[in-house]
């Protein structure tokens, strides 16, 4: 059964660092031309949807903010649905703060919070972690945008949000609730955003541990592309296989 819509990972799928994966760029632009809905689903909580779309446009991909779902956006929506207008202490960058405020949540500067949310923060300080720890110990619910322990950069792999989250987890002895891939929270949000049932959607990605397990955990079909992190040999060694595997999206017929 062909898909009626597609979800795409970014790094390793649409591009590698600053270099676009041309087959993926061409595929997405073909979806746009044929009116097939698509959405870019990313664990990156530091960028706004518009900033992600702008980066993609710079690589020749037809995209706007409506084509993007970040883990920060999903986090904001998750909290707002549970607890509208809640007070949130946020450790993170502009993309996270903006996403929380867009959902009508109150971002506070001290430990008197209903929720503590942590996303990647490249200006992390001891005081930010201290306030977060105090709030969690006082009863705030602990949420992490994603568990990525390392992120790829031009310098190599640097500490990711999962590494930062571990500081709060260890010091408070509380387990966070994770929002981003491979947790299934974003699957329902993504399907709703593109207006399709989950059985009509395929998740496309290069990383088994995040992208493919995200689809598997969320109950949607998956397609592994061999343009990024994991090789076909690695994929074949996994207990649960992706629904499809292609060398590139040039092979996939709509």
UniProtKB/TrEMBL annotation:
Family that this chain belongs to: Belongs to the HAD-like hydrolase superfamily. NagD family.
Top-level taxon in the UniProt lineage: Bacteria
GO cellular component: cytoplasm
GO molecular function annotations of the record: 5'-nucleotidase activity; metal ion binding
Annotated substrate binding sites: 181
UniProt keyword annotation of Lyase present: no
Keywords on record: Hydrolase, Magnesium, Metal-binding
Organism: Exiguobacterium oxidotolerans
Obligatory cofactor(s): Mg(2+)
Top-tier EC class: hydrolase
Keyword hit for Transcription: no
Cofactor binding notes: Divalent metal ions. Mg(2+) is the most effective.
Entry EC number(s): 3.1.3.5
Chain residues that bind Mg(2+): 9, 11, 206
Protein name as it appears in the record: 5' nucleotidase, promiscuous
Gene3D superfamilies: HAD superfamily/HAD-like
Active site: 9 (nucleophile), 11 (proton donor)
Pfam families assigned: Hydrolase_6, Hydrolase_like
